[in-house]
Amino acid sequence: MSGKAIPQFSFSSLFQIDKLVHFTLFFVLSWLLVKSFNVQNSYPALKVNTIRKAFLISFLYGFTLECLQYFVPDRNFDLLDIIANTAGTFFPLIFIKKKSSAEKV
């Protein structure tokens, strides 16, 4: 196995514009999932553990899309995209959790 087969990683690659786009899109997705689960009345089960459900749905969606890109010509699997997706999924949920905890006090 040659050294060229090992993927190169640089810390600066975490802060590329496409990673910011991934982060932003998944931030919005998670935020909207939680808000829509709480507003709707058709499926009461969605109002329970909304943060966990939103995280799971958003994470699995992002992970699946990245894995599928491996099989599409001219596309590639990128672990940093998954990290950006997951971070974008996670951060709004922290804010929502803190806000809901503050409102209960």
DSSP E strands, number: 0
Q: Please, what is the oligomeric state?
A: single chain
Report how far apart the termini are.
58 Å
Binned, the helix content reads 55-70%
What does this structure look like?
- The protein has 105 residues and is an all-alpha fold.
- It has helices at 17-39, 50-69, 79-104.
- Helix content is 66%, strand content 0%.
- It starts with 16 loop residues before the first helix and ends with a helix.
- The protein has one domain (23-104).
- The protein is built from 3 helices and no strands.
- The radius of gyration is 17 Å and the shape is elongated.
- It comes from Sporocytophaga myxococcoides.
- This is Putative integral membrane protein.
- Pfam families: VanZ (PF04892).
Keywords:
105 residues; elongated; Putative integral membrane protein; single chain; mainly alpha; 3 helices; VanZ-like; 0% strand
What is the secondary structure topology, with strand pairs?
Elements: H1 17-39, H2 50-69, H3 79-104
Helix pairs in contact: 1-2, 1-3, 2-3
Describe, in short, the structure shown.
The chain has about 100 residues and is mainly α. It has three helices and no strands.
